[in-house]
């Protein structure tokens, strides 16, 4: 199986979570529940005023990396390239306000996946030119998980990218629920990225099951 096919499979149900995103359970318990239930990849995103610092932050990242390895699920690090390299992460994800994708690609080489958050056609084209392997497109709908989120893009940008034969896999993020999956995939996305709909659910495993049920219809 090619690296491209492996990535598309990994992006199907992309779980994003930091300690600041949890509900009833602690972060590692929440992560393990989600991994057992069948998320296809995980992004460690530890940001914001309530996030862990220094030694606690590193310990959480290391433990999350080990859990993902145990379940054979790709592990991505948000923004922190140095930490991603230290942990031998499977990928790095950066936003428009983080380190430039072109620079990140040079630092991580070709063996590690690179994802970039985009909110427009222009940003999508730049991400491709800069060496991204996939893009996260959003926010799909209004979201509480990012205080500085852009205006919602809905499915319009996905359809435009598909119409233009955009070469990279795309993932929808931002307020995505199981009810949105059919619209998102029919617009051309490879998968959905989810934060609070899983991490803050009173039953994370059931939430994962609901997403998978919708995803498996395509």
TrEMBL record:
Pathway: Cofactor biosynthesis; thiamine diphosphate biosynthesis; thiamine phosphate from 4-amino-2-methyl-5-diphosphomethylpyrimidine and 4-methyl-5-(2-phosphoethyl)-thiazole: step 1/1. The keyword NAD does not apply. 4-amino-2-methyl-5-(diphosphooxymethyl)pyrimidine binds at residues 43-47, 78, 117, 146. GO terms for molecular function: thiamine-phosphate diphosphorylase activity. 2-[(2R,5Z)-2-carboxy-4-methylthiazol-5(2H)-ylidene]ethyl phosphate binds at residues 143-145, 175, 195-196. Binds 1 Mg(2+) ion per subunit. Its cofactor is Mg(2+). Mg(2+) binds at residues 79, 98. InterPro entries: Aldolase_TIM, ThiamineP_synth_sf, ThiamineP_synth_TenI, TMP_synthase. It catalyses: 4-methyl-5-(2-phosphooxyethyl)-thiazole + 4-amino-2-methyl-5-(diphosphooxymethyl)pyrimidine + H(+) = thiamine phosphate + diphosphate; 2-[(2R,5Z)-2-carboxy-4-methylthiazol-5(2H)-ylidene]ethyl phosphate + 4-amino-2-methyl-5-(diphosphooxymethyl)pyrimidine + 2 H(+) = thiamine phosphate + CO2 + diphosphate; 2-(2-carboxy-4-methylthiazol-5-yl)ethyl phosphate + 4-amino-2-methyl-5-(diphosphooxymethyl)pyrimidine + 2 H(+) = thiamine phosphate + CO2 + diphosphate. Gene3D superfamilies: Aldolase class I (3.20.20.70). Condenses 4-methyl-5-(beta-hydroxyethyl)thiazole monophosphate (THZ-P) and 2-methyl-4-amino-5-hydroxymethyl pyrimidine pyrophosphate (HMP-PP) to form thiamine monophosphate (TMP). NCBIfam families: thiE. Belongs to the thiamine-phosphate synthase family. This is Thiamine-phosphate synthase.
């Amino acid at each position: 199986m090619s690296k491209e096919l492996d990535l598309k499979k990994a992006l199907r149900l992309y779980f994003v979570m930091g300690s600041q995103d949890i509900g009833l359970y602690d972060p590692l318990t929440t992560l393990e529940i989600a991994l057992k239930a069948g998320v296809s990849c995980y992004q460690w995103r530890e940001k914001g005023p309530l996030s862990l610092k220094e030694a606690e932050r590193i310990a959480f990242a290391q433990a999350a990396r080990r859990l993902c390895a145990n379940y054979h699920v790709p592990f991505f690090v948000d923004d922190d390239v140095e930490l991603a390299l230290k942990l031998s992460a499977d990928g790095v994800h950066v936003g428009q306000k983080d380190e430039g994708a072109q620079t990140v690609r040079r630092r991580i080489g070709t063996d590690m996946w690179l994802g970039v958050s985009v909110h427009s056609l222009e940003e999508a084209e730049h991400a491709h030119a800069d060496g991204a392997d996939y893009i996260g497109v959003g926010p799909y709908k209004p979201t509480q998980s990012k205080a500085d989120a852009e205006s919602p893009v809905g499915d319009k940008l996905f359809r435009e990218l598909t119409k233009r034969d955009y070469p990279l896999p795309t993932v929808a993020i931002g307020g995505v629920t199981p009810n949105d999956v059919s619209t998102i995939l029919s617009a051309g996305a490879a998968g959905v990225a989810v934060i609070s709909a899983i991490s803050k659910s009173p039953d994370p495993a059931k939430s994962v099951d609901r997403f998978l049920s919708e995803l498996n219809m395509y």
